[in-house]
Amino acid sequence: MLVDDDPLVRSGLRLMLGGSAFEIVAEAGDGREALELYSADPVDLVLMDLRMPVLDGIAATSEFKKLLDPPAVIVLTTFDADDYVVRALAVGADGFLLKDTPPRDIVTAINNVLSGQPALSPSVTAALIKQVVDGRGDDKAGRAEKAIGELTERERDVAICLAKGASNAEIGAELYMSVPTVKAHISHIFAKLGASNRVQVAILLHDAGLA
């Protein structure tokens, strides 16, 4: 599903994805319309603009992620690291792309997210982490260390790799474990840390001095 209040942007995305293996089954001009369309015909993934009328991308992403079986959500914006993006990731967005991302990279990002991989470039991840960390209090390290202390040694190793932007396959190769085992560890890490995406884990690792 494509969600953007600019018909030209939606048209451009449709053209870019036209030659891929993905089928665009719906388009919406705002978050409210997207939720209504999804309730009638669920989709696997939503490409979501952030700044829209009626219901913006942050609020819509939050509503999607409250569903029992939510779709993956990749947010789109013209800015590479602003408060909107931080907030979108905080409510559970699965990835982040600039609107001028090359078509091939958009397809790669969609494939990554649908297979449980990150869809954030290391440079963008670093910028987002810095923005969040700069706004935190002096006790951030203590809180982070306490949270990380809940992880097993193996989960901690996986979390460190994850915070560096490694894919599940790369983590498996680094730590000599299968991809299904990596996915299981990541699920446990998210649950123990109260995280909904990899950026949130990376922020905690950064606060604890481990990334």
Automatic annotation (TrEMBL):
<feature type="domain" description="HTH luxR-type">
    <location>
        <begin position="144"/>
        <end position="209"/>
    </location>
</feature>
<dbReference type="InterPro" id="IPR058245">
    <property type="entry name" value="NreC/VraR/RcsB-like_REC"/>
</dbReference>
<protein>
    <submittedName>
        <fullName>Putative two-component response regulator</fullName>
    </submittedName>
</protein>
<dbReference type="Pfam" id="PF00196">
    <property type="entry name" value="GerE"/>
</dbReference>
<dbReference type="GO" id="GO:0000160">
    <property type="term" value="P:phosphorelay signal transduction system"/>
</dbReference>
<dbReference type="InterPro" id="IPR039420">
    <property type="entry name" value="WalR-like"/>
</dbReference>
<dbReference type="Pfam" id="PF00072">
    <property type="entry name" value="Response_reg"/>
</dbReference>
<keyword id="KW-0597">Phosphoprotein</keyword>
<keyword id="KW-0804">Transcription</keyword>
<feature type="modified residue" description="4-aspartylphosphate">
    <location>
        <position position="49"/>
    </location>
</feature>
<dbReference type="InterPro" id="IPR016032">
    <property type="entry name" value="Sig_transdc_resp-reg_C-effctor"/>
</dbReference>
<dbReference type="InterPro" id="IPR001789">
    <property type="entry name" value="Sig_transdc_resp-reg_receiver"/>
</dbReference>
<dbReference type="InterPro" id="IPR011006">
    <property type="entry name" value="CheY-like_superfamily"/>
</dbReference>
<feature type="domain" description="Response regulatory">
    <location>
        <begin position="1"/>
        <end position="114"/>
    </location>
</feature>
<dbReference type="InterPro" id="IPR000792">
    <property type="entry name" value="Tscrpt_reg_LuxR_C"/>
</dbReference>
<keyword id="KW-0805">Transcription regulation</keyword>
<keyword id="KW-0238">DNA-binding</keyword>
<dbReference type="GO" id="GO:0003677">
    <property type="term" value="F:DNA binding"/>
</dbReference>
<dbReference type="GO" id="GO:0006355">
    <property type="term" value="P:regulation of DNA-templated transcription"/>
</dbReference>
